[in-house]
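User: Working on a comparison across species. This one is Ribosomal RNA small subunit methyltransferase E from Rhodothalassium salexigens DSM 2132. Can you predict its structure so I can line it up against the others?
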Amino acid sequence: MTVPRLYTTQTLVAEAVVDPGTGPAHYLVSVLRLGPGAEVVLFNGRDGEWRGRLVEATRKRATVRLDARTRAPAAEPGPHLVFAPIKKARLDFLVEKAVELGAARLTPVLTRHGVVDKVKTERLAATMTEAAEQCERLTVPQLDAPVRLAALLGAWPADTPLYAAIARDQNVAPWSRVVAEIAAGGTPPALLVGPEGGFSAEEVTLLNAHAAVRPVALGPRILRAETAALTLLAQWQAVAGSAANSDRSGP
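Assistant: Here's the predicted structure for Ribosomal RNA small subunit methyltransferase E from Rhodothalassium salexigens DSM 2132:
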Protein backbone atom coordinates (compact mmCIF):
# COMPACT_ATOMS: atom_id res chain seq x y z
CA MET A 1 0.00 0.00 0.00
CA THR A 2 1.25 3.47 -0.87
CA VAL A 3 2.12 5.58 2.17
CA PRO A 4 -0.48 8.39 2.44
CA ARG A 5 0.90 11.88 1.86
CA LEU A 6 -0.92 14.87 3.37
CA TYR A 7 -0.58 18.63 3.50
CA THR A 8 -0.68 20.35 6.88
CA THR A 9 -0.23 23.90 8.12
CA GLN A 10 1.60 22.69 11.24
CA THR A 11 5.34 23.19 11.74
CA LEU A 12 7.34 20.06 10.96
CA VAL A 13 10.47 19.26 13.00
CA ALA A 14 12.14 16.06 14.13
CA GLU A 15 10.29 14.07 16.84
CA ALA A 16 7.38 16.53 16.91
CA VAL A 17 3.88 15.11 17.40
CA VAL A 18 1.70 16.80 14.80
CA ASP A 19 -2.09 17.02 14.58
CA PRO A 20 -2.79 17.49 10.84
CA GLY A 21 -6.45 18.36 11.42
CA THR A 22 -9.95 16.86 11.42
CA GLY A 23 -10.14 16.31 7.66
CA PRO A 24 -6.88 14.36 7.42
CA ALA A 25 -7.84 12.40 10.55
CA HIS A 26 -11.09 11.29 8.92
CA TYR A 27 -9.23 10.33 5.74
CA LEU A 28 -6.54 8.34 7.55
CA VAL A 29 -8.80 6.53 9.99
CA SER A 30 -12.24 6.27 8.38
CA VAL A 31 -11.28 6.05 4.70
CA LEU A 32 -7.90 4.29 4.76
CA ARG A 33 -8.64 2.41 8.01
CA LEU A 34 -5.18 3.09 9.42
CA GLY A 35 -4.29 2.68 13.07
CA PRO A 36 -1.42 3.54 15.41
CA GLY A 37 1.97 2.72 13.93
CA ALA A 38 0.94 3.28 10.31
CA GLU A 39 3.33 5.34 8.20
CA VAL A 40 2.31 8.82 7.03
CA VAL A 41 4.13 11.49 5.00
CA LEU A 42 3.48 15.18 5.75
CA PHE A 43 4.51 18.44 4.05
CA ASN A 44 3.59 22.08 4.70
CA GLY A 45 5.25 24.15 1.97
CA ARG A 46 7.94 25.42 4.37
CA ASP A 47 9.76 22.60 6.13
CA GLY A 48 10.17 20.03 3.38
CA GLU A 49 8.64 16.57 3.50
CA TRP A 50 8.61 14.35 6.60
CA ARG A 51 7.88 10.71 7.29
CA GLY A 52 6.26 9.69 10.55
CA ARG A 53 3.88 7.24 12.21
CA LEU A 54 0.39 7.55 13.59
CA VAL A 55 0.30 7.80 17.38
CA GLU A 56 -3.35 8.57 17.99
CA ALA A 57 -5.97 7.46 15.49
CA THR A 58 -9.66 8.26 15.97
CA ARG A 59 -12.25 9.50 13.49
CA LYS A 60 -11.97 13.06 14.81
CA ARG A 61 -8.31 13.24 15.74
CA ALA A 62 -5.06 11.78 14.51
CA THR A 63 -1.54 12.62 15.58
CA VAL A 64 1.69 11.80 13.79
CA ARG A 65 5.13 11.54 15.38
CA LEU A 66 7.73 12.71 12.88
CA ASP A 67 10.72 10.41 12.40
CA ALA A 68 12.84 11.91 9.63
CA ARG A 69 12.82 14.47 6.86
CA THR A 70 12.76 12.79 3.47
CA ARG A 71 13.03 15.94 1.30
CA ALA A 72 14.54 19.30 2.11
CA PRO A 73 12.59 22.54 1.61
CA ALA A 74 12.87 23.82 -1.95
CA ALA A 75 11.35 26.64 -3.95
CA GLU A 76 8.96 25.55 -6.69
CA PRO A 77 8.77 28.50 -9.08
CA GLY A 78 6.20 28.14 -11.80
CA PRO A 79 3.86 30.03 -14.11
CA HIS A 80 1.10 32.33 -12.91
CA LEU A 81 -2.10 31.14 -14.60
CA VAL A 82 -4.88 33.70 -15.04
CA PHE A 83 -7.99 31.90 -16.26
CA ALA A 84 -11.69 32.49 -16.81
CA PRO A 85 -13.66 30.01 -14.66
CA ILE A 86 -15.61 27.30 -16.45
CA LYS A 87 -18.25 24.81 -15.33
CA LYS A 88 -17.63 22.78 -12.19
CA ALA A 89 -16.26 19.41 -13.31
CA ARG A 90 -14.06 20.91 -16.02
CA LEU A 91 -12.89 23.67 -13.67
CA ASP A 92 -11.84 21.09 -11.08
CA PHE A 93 -9.98 19.22 -13.83
CA LEU A 94 -8.24 22.40 -15.01
CA VAL A 95 -7.12 23.36 -11.51
CA GLU A 96 -5.95 19.84 -10.65
CA LYS A 97 -3.85 19.55 -13.79
CA ALA A 98 -2.48 23.09 -13.43
CA VAL A 99 -1.08 22.08 -10.04
CA GLU A 100 0.42 18.90 -11.51
CA LEU A 101 1.98 20.93 -14.34
CA GLY A 102 3.76 23.26 -11.95
CA ALA A 103 1.64 26.42 -11.78
CA ALA A 104 2.71 28.47 -8.77
CA ARG A 105 -0.25 30.87 -8.70
CA LEU A 106 -3.80 30.76 -10.02
CA THR A 107 -6.04 33.79 -10.53
CA PRO A 108 -9.68 33.39 -11.65
CA VAL A 109 -10.63 36.30 -13.91
CA LEU A 110 -14.25 37.26 -14.59
CA THR A 111 -15.16 38.27 -18.15
CA ARG A 112 -18.24 39.34 -20.08
CA HIS A 113 -18.76 36.01 -21.85
CA GLY A 114 -17.76 33.83 -18.91
CA VAL A 115 -20.24 31.08 -17.99
CA VAL A 116 -19.37 31.27 -14.27
CA ASP A 117 -19.79 34.43 -12.19
CA LYS A 118 -19.28 32.93 -8.73
CA VAL A 119 -16.23 30.87 -7.88
CA LYS A 120 -16.14 28.59 -4.85
CA THR A 121 -12.56 29.25 -3.87
CA GLU A 122 -12.73 26.86 -0.88
CA ARG A 123 -13.51 23.96 -3.19
CA LEU A 124 -10.76 24.98 -5.61
CA ALA A 125 -8.29 25.27 -2.74
CA ALA A 126 -9.19 21.75 -1.60
CA THR A 127 -8.70 20.44 -5.15
CA MET A 128 -5.32 22.14 -5.34
CA THR A 129 -4.23 20.66 -2.01
CA GLU A 130 -5.26 17.15 -3.05
CA ALA A 131 -3.41 17.54 -6.35
CA ALA A 132 -0.24 18.71 -4.57
CA GLU A 133 -0.46 15.72 -2.22
CA GLN A 134 -0.88 13.30 -5.10
CA CYS A 135 1.83 14.65 -7.41
CA GLU A 136 4.41 15.02 -4.61
CA ARG A 137 4.90 18.75 -4.80
CA LEU A 138 6.41 20.41 -1.75
CA THR A 139 4.12 23.43 -2.02
CA VAL A 140 0.48 24.20 -2.75
CA PRO A 141 0.06 27.02 -5.29
CA GLN A 142 -1.35 30.40 -4.30
CA LEU A 143 -5.03 30.89 -5.16
CA ASP A 144 -6.25 34.47 -5.59
CA ALA A 145 -9.75 35.80 -5.16
CA PRO A 146 -11.66 36.22 -8.45
CA VAL A 147 -11.11 39.58 -10.16
CA ARG A 148 -12.70 41.36 -13.11
CA LEU A 149 -10.54 41.54 -16.22
CA ALA A 150 -10.54 45.35 -16.28
CA ALA A 151 -9.40 45.47 -12.64
CA LEU A 152 -6.72 42.86 -13.27
CA LEU A 153 -5.31 44.80 -16.21
CA GLY A 154 -5.56 48.08 -14.32
CA ALA A 155 -3.28 46.74 -11.61
CA TRP A 156 -0.98 44.70 -13.86
CA PRO A 157 2.59 46.09 -14.08
CA ALA A 158 3.55 47.22 -17.56
CA ASP A 159 6.96 45.55 -17.20
CA THR A 160 5.56 42.08 -16.37
CA PRO A 161 4.63 40.27 -19.60
CA LEU A 162 1.22 38.58 -19.67
CA TYR A 163 1.12 35.98 -22.44
CA ALA A 164 -2.47 35.78 -23.63
CA ALA A 165 -3.97 33.03 -25.78
CA ILE A 166 -6.34 35.36 -27.59
CA ALA A 167 -5.65 34.85 -31.28
CA ARG A 168 -5.38 32.25 -34.05
CA ASP A 169 -3.98 34.81 -36.47
CA GLN A 170 -1.02 33.52 -38.48
CA ASN A 171 0.72 36.82 -37.76
CA VAL A 172 0.69 36.12 -34.01
CA ALA A 173 3.70 34.26 -32.64
CA PRO A 174 2.99 30.61 -31.74
CA TRP A 175 3.40 29.78 -28.07
CA SER A 176 5.75 26.91 -28.92
CA ARG A 177 8.24 29.43 -30.31
CA VAL A 178 7.69 32.07 -27.64
CA VAL A 179 8.15 29.63 -24.77
CA ALA A 180 11.49 28.52 -26.18
CA GLU A 181 12.63 32.14 -26.36
CA ILE A 182 11.59 33.15 -22.84
CA ALA A 183 12.73 29.92 -21.16
CA ALA A 184 16.33 31.08 -21.34
CA GLY A 185 15.49 33.97 -19.02
CA GLY A 186 14.53 31.56 -16.25
CA THR A 187 11.54 33.56 -14.98
CA PRO A 188 8.25 31.62 -15.16
CA PRO A 189 5.66 33.46 -17.26
CA ALA A 190 2.22 34.81 -16.49
CA LEU A 191 -0.40 33.21 -18.75
CA LEU A 192 -3.94 34.31 -19.62
CA VAL A 193 -6.74 32.13 -20.97
CA GLY A 194 -10.20 33.49 -21.70
CA PRO A 195 -13.71 32.08 -21.31
CA GLU A 196 -15.44 29.47 -23.42
CA GLY A 197 -17.24 32.20 -25.36
CA GLY A 198 -14.06 34.15 -25.98
CA PHE A 199 -13.23 37.68 -24.93
CA SER A 200 -15.66 40.42 -25.93
CA ALA A 201 -14.61 43.05 -28.46
CA GLU A 202 -14.18 45.57 -25.66
CA GLU A 203 -12.00 43.15 -23.69
CA VAL A 204 -9.84 42.42 -26.73
CA THR A 205 -9.35 46.17 -27.13
CA LEU A 206 -8.30 46.45 -23.47
CA LEU A 207 -5.88 43.57 -23.85
CA ASN A 208 -4.32 44.88 -27.05
CA ALA A 209 -3.90 48.32 -25.51
CA HIS A 210 -2.04 47.08 -22.43
CA ALA A 211 1.74 47.34 -22.63
CA ALA A 212 2.28 44.03 -20.81
CA VAL A 213 -0.01 41.82 -22.89
CA ARG A 214 1.73 39.56 -25.40
CA PRO A 215 -0.74 37.68 -27.67
CA VAL A 216 0.28 34.13 -28.50
CA ALA A 217 -1.30 31.50 -30.74
CA LEU A 218 -1.95 27.84 -29.93
CA GLY A 219 -2.60 26.66 -33.46
CA PRO A 220 -5.43 26.76 -35.99
CA ARG A 221 -8.09 24.96 -33.95
CA ILE A 222 -10.58 26.37 -31.47
CA LEU A 223 -9.61 24.90 -28.11
CA ARG A 224 -11.71 24.49 -25.00
CA ALA A 225 -10.67 26.82 -22.21
CA GLU A 226 -9.12 24.06 -20.13
CA THR A 227 -7.28 22.64 -23.16
CA ALA A 228 -5.77 26.04 -23.92
CA ALA A 229 -4.65 26.56 -20.33
CA LEU A 230 -3.06 23.14 -20.04
CA THR A 231 -1.37 23.49 -23.44
CA LEU A 232 0.32 26.68 -22.27
CA LEU A 233 1.44 25.04 -19.03
CA ALA A 234 2.51 21.74 -20.57
CA GLN A 235 4.72 23.40 -23.16
CA TRP A 236 6.37 25.55 -20.50
CA GLN A 237 6.84 22.50 -18.28
CA ALA A 238 8.45 20.53 -21.11
CA VAL A 239 10.86 23.31 -22.07
CA ALA A 240 11.75 25.02 -18.81
CA GLY A 241 9.86 23.48 -15.89
CA SER A 242 10.61 20.59 -13.57
CA ALA A 243 10.05 18.10 -16.40
CA ALA A 244 13.07 19.59 -18.15
CA ASN A 245 15.12 20.20 -14.99
CA SER A 246 14.39 17.28 -12.70
CA ASP A 247 16.26 17.65 -9.41
CA ARG A 248 14.55 15.84 -6.57
CA SER A 249 16.25 17.00 -3.39
CA GLY A 250 16.83 14.63 -0.49
CA PRO A 251 16.98 15.45 3.21
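For your comparison, note: The longest strand covers residues 62-71.

User: Helpful, thanks.
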